Amino acid sequence: MTKCVDKFVGATLVSSLRGIVLLVLFLGGCAQDQHQADRAIQSFYAGDAAAAIRQLQPLAKKTNENFVLNNVRLGSIALASYDLDAAENAFLSAYEVINSTGVNNGGRTLGAVLVDEKMKVWKGEPYERAMVNFYLGVIYYMRHDYNNARAAFENALFKLRDYADENAKAYKEVESNFAPALLMLAKSFQRLGREDLAKANFDKLGNKLMLKGLADFDRNAESNLLLVVDFGYGPRKVTDFDGSVVRLAPTPMEVGPIQRPMVWIDGSPLWVDSVNLPPVDLLALAQDRKWQSLDTFRAVKSGIGTGLIAGGAFEGLRGASGEGSRQRTDLMVAGGLLATGLLLKATSQADVRQWELLPRTVFILPLKVPPGKHEINVSFPGADVRQTWRNLEVPTEGEATYYFRMQRWNEGPFDWPPPAMAQVSGAPSTGGN
Questions:
Q1: DSSP letter for each residue of 163-178
Q2: Rounded distance, CA 27 to CA 66, Å?
Q3: pLDDT digit string (tens) for 288-304?
Q4: Could you tell me the CA-to-CA distances from 53 to 72, 75, 139, 255, 428 in Å, in that order?
Q5: Could you tell me the pTM of the whole model?
Q6: Most C-beta atoms within 10 A of its C-beta, which of 8, 10, 132, 422?
């Protein structure tokens, strides 16, 4: 009987140690890739988007657990650089995996249970998935491909799961309240000539009292210049207690209200007070349980690990005071429990992978300005952030759309068209419906 126990405990100990070795090797490879991704993000925020793209491109090609994450990172930077082809390809690649079924089945899920949660393919929190579709829609809208834009914005308005409590398995599906996609969906229908559907979606948005100016049908119909302006920094995942619980920070209360933009055209201020309210605050959205993914297994796994460590300590104390074969068995049981408990604790650490390039909000400013080429400046005086573009083309008919990613060290002035678009033959025109 003692030999059987020894054999069982020994096998458990070896299996646990093997799991720890696999975990270390796996995390080592992840750390190297993450270090390269971090360098790319730092390059972007320092104003060197070209270097950031070069650093991210090889990572985005790796079909591993970070495939989606590295592609949305690449998509964000490519969009800010007006490399619309690269941005579209990156966001489409991410979208296809996010909406695929079974990518976390089999080996990956088993690996996440036995080794580390980060072996799962990253698909992001619901608000991150909504932004993938939103940016894809913006790219199509900039190209006047309004039918594909409509489809992308509809995909950003997927139903949310409203759980009764954090540990419940039962949930009810509720409609999305993601206002940026709702507004752009209405505008897409408007450009497609579906006034009935455009008005229906503008009405949904207009139910939010502060957004009535943005939801004005006539104002959007007359707009010949649309500015899509990303401002601030999105939620960050942090760990609490023993590292097994995720919270999203900061909260809106911790950082204060969102600053409102001013727009200048050819050196003169443009009246935008009726449309320069933020349609979304991702910091607030991230605090809403409906916009978060359930992670109850991690907390349960961590609790089991704590119990095993405690049990191992108890067995160790008992074995230390014993003698003979019984002492040997107690000490081996203690070793097995401790090793397994430590493995579970190590692998229950929260998956804090995140899309670091998300803004806090995205302003959508439909404007009516004289046709021709203009210098456009968007500034946030309260945040001391501004960006200037020269020679932006505004059509006589239709609507030109321009994207601004507001950040320090990226003020410009920049000349239109940017290098990424000038190198592409058949770059999208600014006019037409």
A1: ESSTT-S-EEEE----
A2: 13
A3: 888 887 653 344 444 44
A4: 12, 9, 18, 30, 22
A5: 0.81
A6: 132
